Amino acid sequence: MTQDSIIQLAQKYKTPLYIYDFDGIKDRVLEFKQAFKARKSLLCYALKANSNLSLLSFLAKLDCGADCVSINEVKKAILAGIPKYKIIYSGVGKNDDDIKEALDSDILFINVESKMELLRIESIAKAMNKHARISIRVNPDVDAKTHPYISTGLRENKFGVDMESAKAMYIYANNSKHLNPIGIHFHIGSQLLDSTPIMQSMEKIVDLVFLLLALKIDLKFIDIGGGIGIKYENEETIDLYSYAQGILKALNGLDLSIIVEPGRYIVGNNGILVSKVIYEKYNKGKRFCIIDAAMNDLLRPSLYNAKHGITHISIDSKSLEIPPILSEKNDFIDKADIVGPICESGDYLAKDIILPPTKSGDLIVIQSAGAYGFSMSSNYNSRTKCAEVALIEGKEKLICKRESFEDLIAKEKPYLGDNDEF
Predict the structure, then answer these.
(1) Which domains does the chain have, with CATH numbers?
(2) Which residue of 48, 149, 207, 337 is surrounded by the most CB atoms within 10 Å?
(3) Ranges assigned E (strand) in 190-270
């Protein structure tokens, strides 16, 4: 993606703007498939990273499955053309309607997160006269060594059940007329940069699998989750081939199909957020570069204190002429905070980074924004969501239109007085 192409797209579709490299996404998918080709495996893309329908349709054509954490994600995956037998449904808060719809959809299996959920699924399956294919998410109590907000494999995290509870739940499910335990699942966190905790978790899960097989519980799938980290700045990332080899070695002697759930790894480095400089501001030696993107467009910096690479693209535009009476002498400061228009001090995209002088109309490109960018965006401060564009084989495609004010208020109605009916 060249600077010229970014400028052209920003001018055509306005800013803020998400741009995705679908060719790069395809390369990541094929890389993952190649790493696990030695065994029966299924790549279930994690929709929570980015669930744009065009992206999902593209991944469906690459023979990907779907890892979903809401019933609407399940519906989006099916709508995008992902076969139902390649869809799994996870999440700690599935309500009765969610479970019914998942069973009606006849997806591969539901990942169970608690004893009460297991009993609820059984009760609903019985009422529907169905057999519910399930997997149980096991919490191995291993420190993933990542940000606490995206750690999911410790006992204090809300996800999954402990090893002993999982054993009891499998025995119960195996004896149930309406539950069919076919898989086992673990996922210890996101943006993982060290494979050691994954392998430690794998050893624990494999020991449990052998125990369950001895109890005549015939599992067919092992879902090893996702979470492989990407490079945002200078991170040392996990070598995918070595990671896959470690998984395959741990499964020696077990005839189980592997399910893996990458999300960030597939799309993270293949997306950018393009924003326009509004102006710069100095506050007693503190420099701010104010742009038209904000925390509602990309929440990660404010939520996780996450850091993204920043690129400045200078545009030939005239700087605002400041009347002498308002001018003040400011020695140039090479470091700046990049901030947005949201009425929150936490509204920033980068802090204290080296940035050349900018002027109104210049572009700020926020790198590695393909995952957990648009999917976490909101309408805070009544801001509309930005557009999304895909690049594939040298061609551009608008895959999500920019929201309008009319879109923003379409589901609302003003209260006009006591005689007005809602």
Answers:
(1) 36-262 (3.20.20.10), 269-409 (2.40.37.10)
(2) 48
(3) 221-223, 257-260
